[in-house]
Design a protein that fits this description.
Elements (H helix, E strand, L loop, with lengths): L17 H19 L8 H16 L4 H6 L1 H10 L11 H10 L10 H14 L6 H25 L8 H9 L4
Length: 178
């Protein structure tokens, strides 16, 4: 479909560009999760930095305001649960579902979360020590990327219309070039 656009790219932004906020949000979300994993019982600063980066990443990601605010707490809980080791990598399904919601993916794309969950379960069966957490996060993170692209592929074929608010319609009338 040549005419399909990301639902979030159609929203009016108060600051920044869509691409800039998208890339910065993505880097902060993923970087926050990874940075948190470098913490130890004696080095607690990565807990603060990783959590802060993760939260800011969700807040600046382009999308409707309510989903961006509501996903922060569940995603932070999932991020902290990853500190228990490779057996908990399946919890990356929580940020993945949040990603689907914030990005405006249709409900038909939700089953792609099974890719993340099944990969996390498989990783937990093979890796048991916390020292192998980087391998576990890398494998499950790669499955998350595959699932996100699969969800986008579904979204392109089953377009979902954003609910148009009065403010959106006023903006569209004031800026007809969009």
């Amino acid at each position: 479909m040549a005419g399909w656009r990301e639902p979030a790219s159609r929203l009016p932004l108060r600051w920044g560009t869509y691409r800039g906020r998208y890339l910065a949000g993505l880097v902060l979300i993923a970087g926050g999760i990874l940075h948190l994993q470098s913490s130890t019982t004696h080095l607690l600063l990565p807990l603060l930095v990783g959590t802060t980066a993760h939260v800011i990443g969700w807040w600046i990601l382009p999308g409707r305001g309510v989903p961006r605010l509501m996903v922060v707490l569940p995603c932070c809980v999932a991020q902290w649960l990853l500190l228990t080791g490779p057996q908990s990598t399946w919890v990356l399904a929580v940020p993945f579902l949040a990603w689907l919601w914030v990005r405006g993916r249709p409900l038909l794309s939700v089953p792609t979360v099974l890719i993340v969950v099944l990969t996390g379960v498989a990783v937990a069966q093979g890796l048991h020590e916390y020292s192998s957490m980087w391998i576990a996060i890398s494998i499950t993170g790669a499955s998350l990327v595959v699932a996100a692209w699969a969800a986008r592929w579904i979204a392109v074929r089953v377009p979902v219309r954003l609910r148009r608010t009065r403010r959106d319609r006023r903006y569209d009338r004031a800026n007809p070039q969009r």
